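Entry type: protein chain
Record version: 2
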Amino acid sequence: MPLPAFAAIDVGSYEVGMKIFEMSKKNGIKELNDIRYRLELGNSVYASGKIDPVMVDDLCKILLDFKRMMKDFGVEDYRACATSAFRELRSPLIVIEQIFQRTGIRIDVLSNAEQHFLGYKSIAAIETGFKKMIQKGTAIMDVGGGSLQVSLFDKDALVSTQNLKMGSLRIRERLKDLEKTTIHYDHLVEEFIRNDLLSYARLYLKDREVKNLILMGDFLTDTIFHEDLSDNIVTKAEFLKRYEQVADKSTEELAEQMSIDPEYASLVVPTMVIIKNFIDIFQAESLWVPGVSLMDGIGYDYAERKNYIKSVHNFENDILVAARNIAKRYSTGKNHIQGTTALALAIFDNTKKIHGMGSRERLLLQLAVQLHDCGKYINMGSVSECSYHIIKETEIIGLSTQERTIIANAVLYNNEELKPQVEFENDAGMKSENYLLIAKLAAILRLANAMDRSHYQKIEGIKAAIKDRELSLVLDSEMDMSLELGLLKDKVAFFEDVFGIRLTLRRKKK
């Protein structure tokens, strides 16, 4: 009996690819097929916000071809993901629906944070090399067609991640007319990106040491480093030597030298310039080019969710660390956040029979607690509203735009009155089915936050008892809780309205 097969499809800015994987608990993931088609969707999108109808036709033909291959390989499930080219469309839903009606393949448009989290998972799949490298200061760079993502690690922890709009295809399109006017195209690219690089270094790098650089994507291994490399490691000296060999060559010369399409070759110099400048900024000593792609990350993520594999790396912790670093940037109270997190999770874990939420919702609650006070940095008089806007506009690796919006709303309604569902449904970008989830998260956040109103972390533990639609929370505390218990009435009323249960709070008898 054949093993289950899964297809990962990447609708990228300059190519469309599919990998088919065989899945088993015994052997994990095994790649069966890898196919790519050149299709520069980003060309028109970055200029006009639209995809040329001819491009849509070509994309549908490719996807139908993929569909036939999936049938041949006995694929049971698939995931098709689009990235920056679709994110920057004026009307992505219209194009997605057209493609679905013509091919039967539904495309997920990944948020930037989701895209690079999956890319990061594809590297983590090579567990030995990844775990070893991130023990020192390490940066992961993903140079895409439309953007560049830089993630910093230190001692196995994700420190920061930032997206810059300096992808190779975007740079090529912006400078294509000027390229003809200079013999030093690489200098032109360097000048074009210089200000963004300096701003990044000033805001995010500071005194951090980055010894290793991991280069994401397989564009590099398909073109610049297409020959076999020892352990896929490139020293700084080796990279600079290769840079000198390609920087002053024309697109036609590079295409002939690398035996690739001229359109593909035109991305080589912008990519190399970006990497060289980050090597200089980081003072990196070596580069790891594992040759993995977003499709590997999609496959890895699927295998992990379906329990074919179990990662030794804690990806959920990376999301929490990223949120903690955002909170730190806005000078939130560390002790209050820790205390409120413990209370919120205790309430969540003790009331599972009432709220019916799962592990992902538990993570969203933790993130809401982490970030609920960051708005104080902007305005002490409208903390929740300012926190809402900070969360909405700050990418958190591993979260979809929808999940970030859920967290932002839960934080907003920590202090604001929850508006009626009919008004909520009119909010752009927010699905009505998330109304109840936001209400549940806000109810728990309100209760936990109020229990530490003094910021003294008075409560040491919580025990819950449920009987006949009544929830009793027993609070273990050695300190005077008159302030907290006196200010909890409206929080309790909201909690009761959301969960349809009577709530009583009392201190543990000594």
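Comment: The chain has three domains: 5-111, 126-291, 315-507.
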